[in-house]
Specification:
The chain contains eight helices and no strands. With 213 residues, it is mainly alpha-helical. The chain has two domains: 8-118, no CATH class; 154-208, no CATH class. This is PXMP4 protein.
Length: 213
């Protein structure tokens, strides 16, 4: 028993010593990136899938739990694969050219995005749309910072909010099929289901009646 514990401590010391070696840093960063991508993806997707599934999906408890697990696994796996691919390609380019340049990041992420997130499915669609909104804000700020467009005299956010909400509700009312399915479900709950009720039970307590009255 004591020999086993000592062997484990020796193995742990060897692993810690390996982690401190700078020559292995790039490869180890790729591995930790895979780990962090998997953990972060699970943390982000599990609560979202839980809420959306129990709010908007029908089916048995087992089916709902399976759906949550599948969505969480897909998000976690894709993010882990992407981080692994991105950091690996970044390290390879830097090693080949002897230094890191901004284009390396763009190229590595493009290849990773194509390979990992190129499949048009609900999970990938949500992730890409989430990033797209952040990119538009980031590029707008960068354009002001670099002097490509003048600094606004007033905060433009109220106008952006008005245009975003005006556009999305117009699309929902007249071109619903163009919106992502989870957004359709959310808006249906908010703006269409609120038009229908039969008595106090489905006016205040429930969204829809489940009986056959």
């Amino acid at each position: 028993m004591a020999g086993g514990a000592e062997s484990f401590r020796a193995l742990l010391r060897a692993a810690n010593a390996l982690l401190q070696k700078r020559r292995y840093h790039a490869a180890l960063a790729v591995i930790k990136g895979f780990r962090n991508g998997a953990v972060y993806g699970a943390k982000i997707r599990a609560p979202h899938a839980l809420v959306m599934t129990f709010l908007f999906k029908s089916g048995s408890l087992r089916e709902k739990l399976r759906s949550i697990a599948q969505a969480t696994y897909a998000h976690s796996r894709n993010l882990a694969y992407f981080v692994f691919t991105y950091k690996g390609l970044l390290a390879a380019q830097s090693r080949l050219q002897g230094k890191k340049i901004p284009f390396h990041s763009f190229l590595a992420a493009c290849i990773g995005g194509w390979l990992v997130f190129g499949d048009n499915n609900p999970i990938n669609s949500q992730i890409v749309m989430y990033l797209l909104s952040r990119i538009l804000f980031g590029l707008s700020r960068l354009a002001v910072e670099k002097g490509y467009i003048p600094q606004p005299k007033q905060d433009p956010f109220p106008l952006v909010a008005a245009l975003v909400w005006g556009t999305v509700l117009w699309l929902f009312e007249y071109h619903k099929e163009t919106l992502q399915p989870s957004l359709q479900s959310s808006m249906t709950y908010l703006y269409e289901d609120s038009e229908v009720w039969h008595d106090l039970s489905d006016f205040l307590i429930y969204n829809k009646r489940t009986d056959s009255k």
